[in-house]
Amino acid sequence: MANAPAPSRSLLFLLVALTALGEVSTQLIIPGLGAIEHALQAPQGSALMALSAFVAAFGLGQLLFGPLSDRIGRRPVLIGGLALYVVATLAMLLVTDIQQFIAARVLQGLGACAALVLARTVVRDVWKAEAGPALALTMIGMLYAIVVAPIAGGLLIKLLGWRAPIALALVIGSLVLLLALLFFRESNHHLDPRAAHWRTLGGQYLDLLKGRQYRAYAVALACTYGAMFAVIAGSSAVFINLLGFSSLEYGLNFGLIVSMLIVGSTYTRRNIQRLGPQRIVAMGVTMVAVGGVAALAIYLVFGLSVVGLDIPIALVTLGGGLVLPGSVTGAVMPNAHRAGLAAGLMGFAQMFGATCSGLLLSQLRDGSAAPMIIIQAGLALSALVAFQLLRQRQVKTLSYI
């Protein structure tokens, strides 16, 4: 179709920014969770609930926004979601108590989730059979955000206070909204009037989950990201309160650990067409499980240490760099006729794992590193076992055209 967007570097850059927006929103404020609680006179641990609320909204919203974009188009859903993100982030700067902060985070999560699910869907619309490497490349943008944002957030909090990282997120969200308004053209020219209808939506999701391989990818993604989120949500308290790091030192250390996500995702982008999503994800969940179990074993035998956490967690994040783009590619590529639906459910699975992880962490929190390490190990091992049980035993060459 003549007015359909064509694959281009400028479009890919926008999709990378959209994919990264959710992680930017979270990672920027993680080094300042304690500062937020102190400033808002909130009980200890309540800022962690704000993280979990964001993740829950981020996941649930994708169940609606993905299929809604199949019905009314990608552009209106994307623009509406980004506008909501900007308004919610502005509200976070104006709150006076933790309840208002959590409510604003929920709205911010809904806006950010539209950006993620639409980025994944548009890649499938535009790149078609060549979407695998492009999906992996957009994921690298998200992973760069995980690496860089905690460092930037820690520095801003140290220099300017807890509102500074939120102000940066507001600037980033506003720029992305402006770019989308100016340069993004509709990519879905085969609207489905039956999509996102409340009477049939549940059945459509169940139909997706009937596919054994789709279930394998969804569970692997949920458990892997849940294992990673245990560290994302719990590591600031461990490194700052127990190991004596400053917020800036924590941001630098955390950025170094999760830089392995970029290594893994880069490998995935270069090899996914040759190896296929199933082999990529199988390799990834193995690394995740080994890293998670190793962290627990080292903690039980030798106690808490920086090296005993950093090295195993780096292996978990390396495996995550294979699992995240590999599982999304394997689930969305065969579902071109319902790409929004497939991407939305995978996004929900990812955030469901994170929500469960965050809730477990908040309930089991005892001032030690044990809850974070145990939750990470349990979910990491679950990712490996579930994927091995659910995946197809015979790899066949599939055409995604």
From TrEMBL:
Residues passing through the membrane, by range: 42-65, 77-96, 102-123, 135-160, 166-184, 216-244, 250-268, 280-305, 311-332, 339-361, 373-390
Membrane topology label: Multi-pass membrane protein
Q: Which residues form the signal peptide?
A: none
Principal localisation: membrane
Return the PROSITE patterns for the record.
MFS
Q: Name one Pfam family in it.
A: MFS_1
**Family that this chain belongs to:** Belongs to the major facilitator superfamily. Bcr/CmlA family.
What protein name is recorded for this chain?
A: Bcr/CflA family efflux transporter
Q: Which organism is it from?
A: Pseudomonas paracarnis
